[in-house]
Amino acid sequence: MSAAPRTGWLAAVALLTACAAPVGDVGTQKEAMVICPDGPTVAGIDVSHWQDRIDWDAVASDGVEFAFIRVSHGTGVMDREFARNWSEAQRVGIIRGVYQFFSAGDDPVAQADLLVSQVGGALAPGDLPPVIDVEGMSVDGQPRATIIANMRT
Pseudo-torsion of CA 100, 60, 7, 102, nearest 10°? Predict the structure, then answer.
C-alpha cells in the first residue's frame, strides 16, 4: 500500500481470546456472528500481494500487533510480496505468522516444504505457528476425502 493504511483496510481483525465459532467439516459453509466475551483483544491482519506494497511503519502505528503473511497459493504461485512483508513485519516489531493458501490438488508435503524453505528453514523466536488457509477456491475440485487427507498430511 502506498498510502498509510487505516483500520478500515485491515484484511482481518483477529482475536487472541477463546472467541471462535466452531468450524464444520471441509465442504460445509457456516455463517455465524460471534460475540466475544468482555476482555482484551489483540488487533491483527492477514496480508498478501493483494494489499500491494504495505507501509509497515504505518501498520505498526495503527496498533496492529500481529500479522499473518501469505507465502504462496499452493506450490505454483509464490506471493511476490512475501519476503518483504516477512522482514518488514519483524522490523517494526509486529508479531508475525506465515500462512499458505492451500491447494488441494498440489502435493501437501511439497506445499509444507515450500513454506518452511521460504521462512529460512525455521521460525524465529516469537513467531506464530504456520497456518493453512482452506477456502472454496483452494479445493481444486478434489473429492472431500482427498482434501481432508491432504490437509492432515
Answer: 0
Which single residue is written with the C-alpha cell 508475525?
96
Residues 58-103 have pLDDT tens digits of 999 999 999 999 999 999 999 999 999 999 999 999 999 999 999 9
- Listing DSSP states for the chain in one string gives --SPP-GGG-S-----SS--PPP--TT--------PPSS----EEEE-GGG-S--HHHHHHTT--EEEEEEEETTTEE-TTHHHHHHHHHHTT-EEEEEEE--TTS-HHHHHHHHHHHTTTSPPTTPPPPEEE--GGGSTT--HHHHHHHHH-
The catalytic residue positions are 46, 135
Question: Is the CB of residue 102 less than 8 Å from the CB of residue 74?
Answer: yes
pTM: 0.74
pLDDT (average), residues 104-127? 93
- Structural domains in the chain, CATH included, are 7-152 (3.20.20.80)
Rounded CA separation 139/147 (Å)? 7
Supply 19's cell numbers. Answer: 472467541
What is the per-residue pLDDT for 11? 31
